[in-house]
Amino acid sequence: MDYKETILIVDDSALNRMVLIEILGKENYTFLEAENGQQAVELLDCHPEVDLLLLDITMPEIDGFGVLEIMN
Predict the structure, then answer these.
(1) pLDDT tens digits for 20-34?
(2) In what order do the strands lie in the sheet with 30-34?
(3) Is the pTM value of this prediction over 0.85?
């Protein structure tokens, strides 16, 4: 089995997440999704193997800037 990079897409719009996955290609990457910053932080704690984070800035709970502060 080949290794696929893991992309975490964080956006409060399910449609935006779906479009990004379609554009990037389901067959090319492993995708994780979060609908707000709090979920993103929790996923990052459980999945340190995330290779790329696509992060919406304006979201409920914790916004994108808050996620970056926590990650830092």
Answers:
(1) 999 999 899 999 999
(2) 30-34, 6-10, 52-55
(3) yes
